[in-house]
Amino acid sequence: MPLPKISEVRELTDEQIAEEIVAVKRELFQLRLKQATRQEEIKPHQFKHLQHRQAQLLTVERERQLANPPSETTATPVEES
Questions:
Q1: Which of 15, 23, 34, 58 could form a disulfide with 39 if both were Cys (CB 3.0 to 4.6 A apart)?
Q2: Residue ranges of the chain with per-residue pLDDT less than 70
Q3: Among 6, 1, 14, 81, which residue's Cα sits nearest to residue 49?
Q4: What is the largest CA-CA distance in the chain?
Q5: Is 56 exposed, middle or buried, given 0-12, 13-18 or 19+ CB atoms closer than 10 A?
Q6: Where is composition skewed (Polar residues) in this entry (predicted)?
Q7: Could you tell me which of 49, 62, 46 has the C-alpha nearest to residue 10?
Q8: What was the pLDDT predicted at 39?
Q9: CA separation for the pair 11, 17 (Å, rounded)
Q10: Where is 32: in which H helix or E strand?
Q11: Could you count the other beta carbons within 10 Å of the beta carbon of residue 5?
């Protein structure tokens, strides 16, 4: 099973990337839980593939955050008199 390509991640929308990040984190948790409780045989490459996918998703998410900085009007401090 080859590692996922980052070009596939770049085609996703921001919402899809956020959903994928949550799904990958949940799947990693489930794998760790199964490994710790020895419920079934876990193949080590599954961790590598999921961690690789998570890194790709987080990288693309951060690239988009840096490319589109938030407007300054949302975080202005208010002074009290």
A1: 34
A2: 1, 72-78, 81
A3: 1
A4: 65
A5: buried
A6: 68-81
A7: 62
A8: 84
A9: 10
A10: helix 14-37
A11: 10
